[in-house]
Amino acid sequence: MDLRDIRTFDKLSEGEVKYVKRNSRLIKINKNEILYSPNEICEQVSVVLKGKLKVSKLFPSGKEQILKYLQKGDTFGETLVFLKAQYPAYVIADTTAKILEIPKRVMLEIFDNKAFLISYLESISKKVLNLSNVIEMLSMKTIKQRVARYLINLYNSQGSNVINLMKSKKQIAADIGSVREVVSRTFSELERNGVIKLLDRQHVEIIDFEKLEEIILKS
């Protein structure tokens, strides 16, 4: 995968891409290998070139709470690296994966490219906005409310009552602090109640916006 295929890096010149690759580290890891651990200082921006990672909290009992998934083209560590902050959770390979680690000093040098700097800041801003939406969802008491808010957020961003879920039920569950089985049951319940129609695994039609909003506002 070429760096310029990733939107954040598509403003770089061919020479800048070569410079980044020459001064970065390519890591190959197997499924279930730990890439980064909590309390480890983030010293680079990481780019997923191949495969899928998961960001997880691990408990002494052996249980795992998946916070989010990172897929091909995703970046992480963008803010941590400039704060000299620690990773807040484990980053684990969910499949065989390739990751490019771009050191802080290299990032600072390519910031001379103003178009890239603006693209980078836009990417961070979108993640902050998404985090705000996640916090709002997690503040809701029931999983049904969180699913309803998730659907409304997708409607607002896509502008159509037929929405693309963009993710699997397992990934949605991780985003809203639940598990796949509960999320699947919630979607089925919403369909039985005439709120939505499940078109296929990735597409849902919102039938009754008023009922969906009532679910969100219910205390």
Automatic annotation (TrEMBL):
GO terms for molecular function: DNA binding; DNA-binding transcription factor activity. Residues 141-210 form the HTH crp-type domain. Residues 8-111 form the Cyclic nucleotide-binding domain. It comes from the Bacteria. One of its GO terms (cellular component) is cytosol. Keywords: DNA-binding, Transcription, Transcription regulation. CDD domains: CAP_ED, HTH_CRP. InterPro entries: cNMP-bd_dom, cNMP-bd_dom_sf, Env_Response_Regulators, HTH_CRP, RmlC-like_jellyroll, WH_DNA-bd_sf. PANTHER family: CRP FAMILY TRANSCRIPTIONAL REGULATORY PROTEIN, REGULATORY PROTEIN YEIL. This is Crp/Fnr family transcriptional regulator. It comes from Kosmotoga pacifica. The lineage of its organism: Bacteria, Thermotogati, Thermotogota, Thermotogae, Kosmotogales.
